[in-house]
Amino acid sequence: MWRVIHDGLTSDERIRLHLAAAEAVEAVSPPEAAGRHARLAYHYAQAVPLAGARPAIDHACRAADHAVARLAFEDASRFYGEAIELAERHGDLEPGEWCELALRQADALLGGGETSRARSTYAEAAERAAVAGDVDRLARGALGRAGYRGLPGVPDVEAIALLERSLATPAVDGLLQARVAARLAMELYYLGERDRRDHLSASAVDLVRPTGDGTVLAQVLISRHYALDEVANVAERTAVAVEAARVAEAAGDGDTAMLAHYLLVRDRLEVGDRPAAEAAAERHRELAVHARQPLHPWRVLLLDALFAHLDGDIDRAEALALQAFATGSAASIPNAGAALGGLLFLVRLEQGRLPEILEATLDGQARHPRYSTWAPMVAWCRLASGDRRGARVSFTAAMAGLGSVEEAEAFLPTGFALAAVAVGLGDVAACERLLDRFALYADRVAVVTGPTACCGPVALFLGRLATVAGRTEEAKALLRSAAVLAERLASPVWTAQVTAARAEVEVVGGVPSMPLTER
Question: Counting beta carbons within 10 angstroms of the beta carbon of residue 367, is it exposed (0 to 12), middle (13 to 18) or buried (19 or more)?
Answer without folding.
Answer: middle
